[in-house]
């Protein structure tokens, strides 16, 4: 897995001071990781639902430089994001798949290379699952809603098998090997940085969504911000 060079947009990423995380060992043997983020300023649930629908195929032209939207959303850790969709020209829908590569804190030891199925996408949540031989081994859910100070946002990652013959092997052997403390720490920091980064670009990109799947944002042009369409 080849890490691209870090992207520099002049944005400061958030840190652990801005979020709260917990780890819960569930009665069925699975492990639940939760991250509760502070309000995402100037971002709405509508923006987030739109973003997750298009971010696998969206291109952003920021100050003249073309970038896949996924690489903008985390300028350091994201590597690539592709999609397998029933409607190739439309947004992601339930039943579609994402092909994702990223490395938390740019460390190859903390890399993710996964095919994830979309199981929910609306203005309250975006949910994915990873499977092995038809058995779900991980569920990832992003929950969001509008709040007085910006969108509230939580991440829920549940790893392990809920039932079946693979449950003892996966929950007792594979999960501790795949999700050890240092990697969990790196994932939590990654998601804090990624969610907090929405404040830096998503309102501007969403306001230009009528441009289609290649959106230009020139931060050096005053008229580019003055002529934005109003947000609903």
Summarize the SSE layout with pairings.
Blueprint: E1 20-25, E2 31-40, H1 45-54, E3 59-62, E4 65-68, H2 69-73, E5 78-84, E6 97-103, E7 111-121, E8 125-132, E9 135-145, E10 151-159, H3 167-178, H4 181-207, E11 214-217, H5 222-226
Parallel strand pairs: 3-11
Antiparallel strand pairs: 1-2, 2-10, 3-4, 5-6, 6-7, 7-8, 8-9, 9-10
Global geometry = globular
- What would you give as the CATH superfamily? START domain
Question: What's the story with the biggest beta sheet?
Answer: 8 strands, antiparallel
- Helix/strand structural class: alpha+beta
Radius of gyration, in Å, reads: 18 Å
Examine the coordinates and then state which fold CATH places here, giving the name of the CATH topology. Answer: Alpha-D-Glucose-1,6-Bisphosphate, Chain A, domain 4
Number of strands: 11
How many individual helices? Answer: 5
The oligomeric state of the chains shown is single chain
Portion in strands: 25-35%
Count of structural domains:
1
Q: In which order are the strands of the major sheet placed?
A: 1-2-10-9-8-7-6-5
Helix percent band = 25-40%
Q: What is the correct CATH architecture?
A: 2-Layer Sandwich
Low-confidence stretches: 225-232
State mean pLDDT (0 to 100 scale).
90
């Amino acid at each position: 897995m080849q890490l691209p060079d870090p992207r520099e947009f002049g944005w400061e990423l958030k840190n652990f001071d801005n979020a709260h995380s917990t780890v819960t060992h569930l009665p069925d043997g699975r492990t639940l990781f939760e991250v509760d983020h502070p309000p995402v300023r100037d971002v709405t649930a509508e923006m987030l639902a739109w973003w997750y629908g298009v971010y696998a195929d969206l291109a952003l032209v920021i100050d003249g430089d073309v970038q896949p939207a996924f690489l903008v959303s985390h300028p350091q850790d994201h590597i690539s994001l592709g999609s397998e969709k029933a409607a190739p020209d439309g947004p992601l829908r339930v039943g579609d798949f994402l092909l994702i590569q990223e490395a938390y804190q740019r460390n190859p030891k903390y890399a993710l290379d996964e095919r994830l199925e979309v199981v929910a996408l609306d203005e309250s949540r975006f949910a994915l699952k990873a499977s092995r031989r038809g058995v779900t081994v991980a569920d990832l859910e992003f929950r969001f809603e509008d709040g007085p100070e910006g969108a509230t946002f939580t991440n829920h990652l549940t790893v392990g098998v809920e039932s079946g013959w693979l449950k003892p092997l996966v929950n007792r052997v594979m999960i501790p090997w795949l999700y050890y403390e240092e990697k969990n720490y790196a994932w939590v920091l990654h998601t804090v940085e990624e969610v907090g980064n929405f404040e830096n670009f998503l309102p501007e990109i969403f306001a230009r969504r009528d441009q289609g799947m290649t959106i230009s944002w020139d931060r050096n042009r005053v008229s580019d911000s003055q002529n934005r369409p109003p947000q609903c």
